[in-house]
Amino acid sequence: PTLCRTVSISNLLTAKHSMRCTKGVETCKTREDDVIVVAYPKSGTHWVWEMVRLLQAGTTDVPLVEKDDGMIEDVVPETLEALPSPRALNTHAHFELMPQDILKKKSCKLIYVTRDPRDVMVSYFNHHRKLTQYYNYSGQWKDYFPLFLSGKVDYESWFAYTQGWEQGMKDNPDLQVHVTSYEALHENTEEEIKKTAGFLGTSADKAFLREVMKKTDFESMRATKGKNETFEGGAVMYRKGKVGDWKNWFTVAQSEQFDAVFEQEMKGTKAYELYSIKKQDF
Ligand code: A3P
Q: Is the distance from the beta carbon of residue 126 to the nearest atom of ligand 1 less than 6 Å?
C-alpha cells in the first residue's frame, strides 16, 4: 500500500511531496562544501537560497538560476551530481529524512530558516490556490485553515517539521547548522547576511554584502526571478514578502484556535519562544 496520497480538496498532500515520499533526499550524497538551505515551505527558502548562492560565488554578477534546480527532492540525483562545487542545495524534508551523511563529523553546512507559522499558513494557502497545475485547489481560507493545522498539506505538519528539526539539532550537536528566521532577516537584513557569510566563511567585504542585500531584496528578486517564473509562480514565490500578513486573514476565532494548537504542540520549543502568541498582536 502506498503511503503517498494524491491531491483532493480535503487533502493537499501531493504524492511527490508527502513526507514519506521525498525520495532521494535520504540517499543524496552530499559534499563537504555543500550548503543546504532547510526550511518548511513558505519560510523564505528562495530568499536565503539566493543569498547563499551569491555569497558562495563571491559576486552578484551571476546567471539567473532557479532555486528548484538545487532542490534535492525536485531533481534527479544525476542533475544534482552534475552541479559544480560548491553547491547551494535546498530541501523541505523533515529532519529524519535528511541525507544521512549530514550527521557525519565532516559534513556540509546547513542553514535552517524558520518563520511565524501564521504567516507560513497564509503564504501556503496562496501557494496552494495559485499553483493550479499542481493542486487544482479552489478551497476558501476557512477551509484551508483546518487542513494546515492537521498537516494535510504538502510536507505535512508544520508542527511536526519544527519539532523534528529542533530535536534533531539538539541530538546532533556536531551538525554544522546556522539558524535564522524570516523575521530576523527582515528586521536586520545586513547583520543576518553578515552572520551567514561568517558561517559560510565567504567574503565579509562590506560593499559586497550590501550588494548581496540589494540583489536579494524582495522587489529586486520579484522583478528578476519572479518575472522569469512561468505560470503564476512569480506571484506566488514572490507574493507579498511581509511579516505579519496573517493579521489580514485570521478571524479572532481562528486566532484563538491557532493559539490553542500552538500552545499544545509547541510549548517548550524554541519556536514557541519566538512566536508565542501575544493577544495584543492581533
Ligand atoms: P509571502 O507569500 O508571505 O509573500 P519560500 O521561498 O520558502 O517558498 O517562501 C516564500 C515566501 O517568501 C513568500 O511569502 C515570498 O513572498 C517570500 N519571499 C520570497 N523572496 C523574498 C525576499 N527576497 N524577501 C522577502 N520575502 C521573500
A: yes
> Residue 113: CB within 6 Å of ligand 1?
no
> What is the total residue count of the chain?
282
Which residue of 237, 245, 248 sits with most ligand 1 atoms within 8 Å of its CB, as the best mutation to test the pocket?
237
From ligand 1's centre to the CA of 94, what distance in Å? 20
What HEC string does 66-127 produce?
A: CHHHHEHHHCCHHHHHHCCCCCEEEECCCHHHCCHHHHCCCCCEEEEEECCHHHHHHHHHHH
Q: Is 216 in the pocket of ligand 1 (CB under 6 A)?
A: yes
Per-residue pLDDT of the chain (282 residues; tens, 9 = 90+): 233 444 555 667 776 666 555 667 888 899 999 999 999 999 999 999 999 999 999 999 999 898 989 999 888 889 999 999 999 999 999 999 899 889 887 789 999 999 999 999 999 999 988 887 778 788 899 999 999 999 989 899 999 999 999 999 999 999 999 999 999 999 999 999 999 999 999 999 999 999 999 999 999 999 888 876 655 556 788 999 999 999 999 999 999 999 999 999 999 999 999 998 654 454
Question: Angle formed by the axes of helices 45-57 and 206-215, to 10°?
Answer: 140
Assess: ipTM above 0.85: yes
